[in-house]
Design brief:
Arc Repressor Mutant, subunit A; mainly alpha; single chain; two-stranded antiparallel sheet; Winged helix-turn-helix transcriptional regulator; 2 domains
């Protein structure tokens, strides 16, 4: 695991998780993958990273086992990125960050930034980690 040396000097699970998850752009990349954005150009646009920055973040997530790179075109070679089981396990964390941001970092006149539909019941899921319907 690429981040092992960074996280081996502490027993704190929060610090160890932060060593793997990384910085703001890395979290935005994971968010985009959850939203179905799997190709480099789309991730580049939504993360507002430079191509070099995005490439290094994707390589790091792949080395850490959070994502897999899969070829979808051979000439020229093009890849999509998919979350692994480890990456998909971050979903409640992303939802919790969303809820915290919607609750504490918006002005009262701002509406919810992104509305999620709960696929099971078809209702607005709200901003928590559990469907409000």
């Amino acid at each position: 695991m690429a981040a092992l040396s960074e996280k081996s000097d502490t027993l704190c699970p929060v610090a160890r998780s932060q060593a793997v998850i990384g910085d703001r752009r890395a979290v935005l990349i994971v968010r985009e993958l959850f939203m179905g954005n799997r190709r480099f150009d789309g991730l580049l646009t939504q993360s507002q990273a430079t191509p070099q920055m995005l490439s290094s973040r994707l390589k790091r997530r792949e080395a850490d086992g959070m994502i897999e790179r899969k070829r979808y075109m051979t000439k020229p070679p093009r890849y999509e990125y998919e979350l692994t089981e480890m990456g998909r396990a971050l979903y409640p964390v992303i939802l919790a960050l969303r809820e915290w941001g919607e609750t504490w970092h918006k002005s009262p006149d701002e509406d919810v930034a992104v509305r999620y539909t709960h696929l099971t019941c078809g209702h607005n899921a709200g901003i928590g980690t559990v469907c409000q319907a």
